[in-house]
Amino acid sequence: MFALFESWLRMHGKDYGGSVLEGEKEHRFRVFKDNLLYVNGHNEKKNSTYSLGLNQFADMSNQEFRAKYTGTKIDKNRRLKRRSAAAGTPFRYADVEAPGSIDWRKKGAVSSVKNQGSCGSCWAFATIGAMEGINAIKTGQLLSLSVQELIDCDRNYNQGCDGGFMDYAFEFIVVNGGIDTETDYPYSSSDGYCDEAKKNAHVVTIDGYEDVPANDDDALKKAVANQPVSIAIEAGGRDFQLYSRGVFTGECGTDLDHGVLVVGYGTEHGLDYWIVKNSWGSYWGERGYLRMQRNIEANSFGLCGINIEPSYAIKTSPNPPNPGPTPPSPPRTEVCDNWRTCPASHTCCCTFPIGKMCLGWGCCSLDSATCCDDHYHCCPHEYPVCNLTVGKCLKWGDGPMMGGVELMKRTPARANLHAIRQQLGRKSSTSGYTEVPSTSTVEQIAFQ
């Protein structure tokens, strides 16, 4: 079994040797064994319509998996208000006769499977997938569009790598006047500053979005017959985590926590299914896809709540001329105080506090990082607990053996030369001019 684990490590490029937490590999092996037994137990069932496997999540407990790879956040009050406001809007596909099956992948309306990594950006991938689909259908050109622009710039309701919801993202794209391409504004798997220049590169536009009538399997089928549709589902179950192939009929509820894209539907051996594109890479499921049971008579919500929150983009207007590659916006700095700054996408951490004042600053090389109490280390925002005893950054509620990442060291902050000159400038009482210290004088003062 350990040889199988070693082979799995090589296949997925994982290595725990750099961990400062003693016994991390042994812990991961125990989790792997438990998942292996679970996979084998399921696959031995003769009547199951789907199989499980040792995918890239096989060394993670289900608790860790849910915390790291689901990221849809829905404000239920706002959802009810939006649904109420849209109740009088006719469903544009109500009178459409849907074919028995459809697969938009075969029609050139679906881009390649992406991997969101440890960023909770599934909502952005689901939004972009729906937009790529309708753009390809209307223009005949399949363009891979920028997920990162939504993560960085769509901040009214959505929260980047901390989760979001597709309808809010559609609203952002409409108000913004379009969105950039993946090539011009590439994915980084982390939160970042909004690049205003690239945000204003409106390569593809939409004219709005609509919600599919809720809890209606036939309505969703009609919508998918006309274009890919973004949906929210409950995807935190263990069977979902380790899904390998087949028509998924596993147990799940309606606690919507993951955004995905329906790109088609069909029937296999009398069992109807949806074709769902995920954002966990091509090693998961059927090369990044999942087939989910549909037409469950006793469940209007659909399996895993698939019928509750479907929505799609509307496109009637042509795209503007492609502006081509966009020069990046000027680098930004993180201002710590009047004397110190950190580079863009860094976090200022106090290294020398006295009461509520800070006399020294350091920089953590991540945005929205947690500054540890030792005034020397810091942690990523997705691992906000500084466990200085074991030298790890952990999630809330995790014990020291739950994984985490190594503590990061801070680097010295830079002198804010411009601000220092302004602070030290002296206006002469006789000549009326402002005397500004030289750069060398400023640097000497700043680093004393």
Automatic annotation (TrEMBL):
> Which InterPro entries does the record match to this protein?
Granulin (IPR000118), Granulin_sf (IPR037277), Papain-like_cys_pep_sf (IPR038765), Pept_asp_AS (IPR025661), Pept_cys_AS (IPR000169), Pept_his_AS (IPR025660), Peptidase_C1A (IPR013128), Peptidase_C1A_C (IPR000668)
Q: Where is the Granulins domain?
A: 336-393
Does S-adenosyl-L-methionine appear among the keywords? no
**Residues covered by region (Disordered):** 426-448
Peptidase C1A papain C-terminal domain residues are 98-314
Gene3D superfamilies cross-referenced by the UniProt entry: Cysteine proteinases, Granulin
Q: Which UniProt keywords apply?
A: Disulfide bond, Glycoprotein, Hydrolase, Protease, Thiol protease
Family matches, as Pfam families: Granulin, Inhibitor_I29, Peptidase_C1
Q: What family does the database annotate?
A: Belongs to the peptidase C1 family.
* Protein name per UniProt: Cysteine protease
